[in-house]
Amino acid sequence: MSGIALVRKPGPRIAEGIVTHIQREPVDPVRAAAQHDAYVAALAAAGWRTVHVPPADDLPDAPFVEDTLVVSGRLAVLTRPGAVERRPEVDSVAQVVRDLGMKAVRIARPGTLDGGDVLQSGPTVYVGRSARTNAQGITQLAALLPERTVVPVDLSGVLHLKSAVTALPDGTLIGDPRHVDLPGLLVPEEEAGAHVVPLGGDRVLLAASAPRTAAMLEKRGLTVTTVDISEYEKLEGCVTCLSVLVTD
Ligand SMILES: CN(C)C(=N)NCCC[C@H](N)C(=O)O
């Protein structure tokens, strides 16, 4: 597996990003920029061609590009983020996916959908029913993906479905049963260990804040790359949020 990784650099207002479930802490924009560079370098080292969505310096949460786009094959579903202030992030992403030759469709009002609520694993697409993603958003996504099985999932105490659970390359779901009730969950050693980006083959990307989960996954035969994303974690972000992977 390889392909394109869409990313967007953080802007000078990153510290003003939305915080919902955790205490606000100061975010250092310079450190955030350096961490973003290292994150992009890790994707590139794993063989992904990184494509930068134009910066959106007035939109603090814009580097969390995952929330604006759901990709299934060559179909790009442009979301309608549940947070009104994040909706202006979508147009610039739309332009990039069109330039890449993808078919772009949009979630329409009154639907809301955040990409962070969409977890794809094989034929199944789990979608979190969150404060950001509503029933109409889920219904619209299911209609756009008739060949997939869309499974709505209830959440508690977290921002997005992928704040609580992601999938390992073999399809095993890794997540926190306190936030999400799914059968057969592999429980990570740290909360941030629930966030895994599959890089292709047996390689995964994990936050540096989950060292014991990294060791656990290495024991299962995975090759783990870790990146420090502390400034994004202060804004309820995780490793998945900072990119959208488009496979060839
Ligand atoms: C899986 N996750 C968590 C995401 N895809 N997005 C995180 C967005 C964080 C941002 N401050 C916000 O509140 O929108």
Automatic annotation (TrEMBL):
Keyword Nucleotide-binding set for record: no
UniProt keyword Iron present: no
Enzyme active site: 160 (proton donor), 241 (nucleophile)
Record's keyword terms, sorted: Hydrolase
Pfam families: ADI (PF02274)
Membrane-spanning residues: none
A GO molecular-function descriptor: amino acid binding
Entry-linked InterPro entries: DDAH-like
GO biological process, one term: positive regulation of nitric oxide biosynthetic process
Superkingdom, natural source: Bacteria
Family: Belongs to the DDAH family.
Protein name: N(G),N(G)-dimethylarginine dimethylaminohydrolase
Organism phylogeny: Bacteria, Bacillati, Actinomycetota, Actinomycetes, Streptosporangiales
